[in-house]
Design goal:
globular; 7-stranded mixed beta sheet; alpha+beta; 161 residues
C-alpha cells in the first residue's frame, strides 16, 4: 500500500518534476522558469505536491491566494496514476488548506472538452458560471469558468489512502 503525502513544494528540488508533469499534461504548459518565478512569490502563490515514498512527486497543484479568493492555476497527475482519485484527494486538500488560511471561494478555468476535470471540479463543489470564447490554444477551444463560492461549507477532502 502506498503512503501518500501532500505538502507545499520544497523549492528548486521539486521544480524539475513539476515542470515535467506540467509539460506532459498540457498543450500550452507553463515553463520551468515561469513555475520558478511563481514559487518565489510566497505572498500569493501556493504550490502543492502529491508524493509517494516509492514514486516521488506524482501530482501537483498551483494556485494564487488573493484576499479571500483562491485561483487554481494548474492541477496535474502523472498520466500513469490517473483515475485513482488522486486529483480529488489533492485538490480537496488544497481547498481545505486555503480555506483554513481565510479563502472563502475558489475559481478556475477548464477546457470545455475536459469532461474528466469537469466531473472532478463538480464533485468538489464547483459550478460553471461563464465561458470564455477562444480562451485556449493548441487546439483552439472555449474555456469554462467555474466557481466554488463556499469553501468553508463544502465537505472536507477525503483522507489519504
Amino acid at each position: 500500500m502506498t503512503s501518500w503525502s501532500i505538502e507545499r513544494a520544497a523549492g528548486e528540488a521539486d521544480l524539475d518534476r513539476i515542470a515535467a508533469l506540467e509539460a506532459a499534461s498540457f498543450s500550452n504548459p507553463w515553463t520551468r522558469e515561469m513555475l520558478a518565478r511563481e514559487l518565489q512569490r510566497t505572498d500569493v502563490t501556493r504550490m502543492y505536491v502529491l508524493r509517494s515514498p516509492d514514486l516521488g512527486i506524482i501530482g501537483f497543484c498551483t494556485c494564487w491566494l488573493i484576499l479571500d479568493e483562491v485561483h487554481i492555476n494548474s492541477l496535474a497527475i502523472d498520466h500513469t496514476m490517473r483515475r485513482k482519485g488522486l486529483a480529488t484527494m489533492l485538490l480537496g486538500h488544497v481547498l481545505d488548506d486555503v480555506a483554513a488560511s481565510g479563502a472563502a471561494q475558489a475559481t478556475l478555468e477548464v477546457r470545455r472538452s475536459n469532461v474528466a476535470a469537469l466531473a472532478l471540479y463538480e464533485r468538489l463543489g464547483f459550478l460553471v458560471v461563464a465561458e470564455r470564447r477562444g480562451y485556449y490554444s493548441k487546439p483552439d477551444e472555449d474555456g469554462l469558468i467555474l466557481w466554488c463560492h463556499d469553501l468553508r461549507g463544502r465537505a472536507v477532502a477525503p483522507p489519504l489512502p
